[in-house]
From TrEMBL:
Subcellular location: Membrane
Membrane topology listed for this record: Multi-pass membrane protein
Transmembrane annotation, as ranges: 12-29, 35-53, 65-83, 152-180, 217-239, 245-267, 279-300, 320-342
InterPro entries referenced in this protein's UniProt entry, alphabetically: AI-2E-like, YtvI-like
Keyword Nucleotidyltransferase appears in the UniProt entry: no
Pfam families tied to this protein: AI-2E_transport
Annotated keywords: Membrane, Transmembrane, Transmembrane helix
Name of the coding gene: ytvI
Family as reported in the entry's similarity comment: Belongs to the autoinducer-2 exporter (AI-2E) (TC 2.A.86) family.
Record has Heme as a keyword: no
Principal location listed in the UniProt entry: membrane
Name used for this protein in its record: Sporulation integral membrane protein YtvI
Length: 351
């Protein structure tokens, strides 16, 4: 009984400390964002920098400068190209969405009339309800399309006001990344030695295990989201769907949201092309591709995430689902990291 109470006390203490740390992290991250990003980037650039030093016999400072500048050039160019393409497509989609729905009003009503053959025997009140609900849904779909694209445009425009801040953020992040990358090993060793002189200390083991699992999780989940985006974008390009980039990004965002998922883009897009625009090639192509992407996602995500963490797939899925249901995106991260740290502490025999 005493052992059970002692174990329960450890879990309660861990949960309280973890919750406080999680809240404080998200509360103060905005003040330390450049340095947090720089630390993450330096972890990514550590390998390439060491490779350049060994391969070309460059000094550490020069090798760090090369990898940092190349890394930021790739990121900034990618963001710029994606932003310009996305804003162009979003503006076109916002202009044309209402036009599509208004021009297709007759086709929509003809479609409703054609369905009467199948539901004529139903109660008139049910028929009226079905027709009004379908019309309402189409109206909402039109308004939602305009709202989403308008929000994207507003974000693009409002971003202009943040250019000075964005420039300062990029500059501080770039400089910090360079110095972190150049002095990563020596700085890390000095800090760790000052905090934990004895490397056999359990806290040192916990830190190493936490770093390994967190970095594995971040990379694996980014890989899953990137995979969904690439699959959607490639499929839409092959099917010649208009606004492929915009719709792929929205689908990737929907993919991490509760209930909606990528079906929030695929299904309406397929139905519109089949029943309204009479473009059966795109409509059925999108439906088939939706099934393919969904199957791949269901197979790949748990395996990638769980294998990188050493956590059971059901545990990860439960963390994602419960977190999203309780508190949205933050809740999802809270539950996932809770799962990860519990695994870490069990691995090092703390819990």
């Amino acid at each position: 009984m005493d052992k059970l109470i002692e174990k329960l006390d450890k879990y309660i203490i861990f949960f309280v400390l973890y919750t406080l740390s999680f809240i404080l992290f998200f509360k103060f991250i905005k003040y330390a964002l450049p340095f947090f990003l720089a630390f993450i980037f330096s972890l990514i650039l550590k390998g390439p920098t060491e490779y350049i030093i060994k391969k070309f016999k460059f000094k550490k400072g020069f090798a760090s400068l090369i990898t940092t500048l190349a890394f930021f050039a790739i990121i900034i160019t990618s963001i710029w190209l994606m932003t310009t393409s996305l804003s162009r497509e979003a503006i076109q989609l916002a202009k044309n969405s209402q036009h599509y729905f208004s021009d297709s009003a007759n086709d929509i009503y003809k479609f409703i009339e054609s369905l009467k053959v199948y539901y004529n025997n139903l109660d008139p009140s049910i028929i009226t309800s079905l027709e009004s609900n379908l019309t309402s849904y189409l109206s909402k779909a039109s308004n939602l399309t305009v709202t989403i694209t308008s929000k994207i445009i507003q974000i693009m425009v409002s971003f202009l006001a943040y250019i000075p801040y964005a420039f300062m953020l990029i500059l501080f992040t770039l400089l910090s990344t360079y110095f972190f990358t150049k002095d990563f090993t020596s700085t890390r060793d000095k800090v760790m030695n000052s905090i934990i002189p004895d490397k056999s200390n359990k806290f040192y083991t916990i830190m190493n295990e936490s770093k390994r699992m967190l970095s594995n999780y971040a990379l694996s989940y980014l890989l899953v989201i990137l995979l969904s985006f690439i699959e959607t974008f490639a499929g839409f390009l092959f099917l010649k769907v208009r606004y492929a980039l915009t719709l792929s990004i929205i689908a990737a965002i929907f993919d991490i949201l509760p209930i909606l998922g990528i079906g929030g883009i695929y299904i309406p897009l397929a139905l519109l092309n089949i029943f309204i625009f009479k473009n059966y090639y795109i409509g059925f192509g999108v439906l088939i591709w939706y099934v393919v992407v969904t199957i791949i996602r269901q197979i790949v995500e748990p395996k990638i995430v769980s294998s990188s963490l050493g956590v059971h797939p059901v545990s990860i899925l439960a963390s994602i689902y419960i977190g999203l249901k309780v508190a949205g995106i933050k809740g999802m991260f809270f539950c996932i990291f809770l799962n990860i740290f519990l695994k870490v502490l069990k691995e090092v025999k703390v819990l």
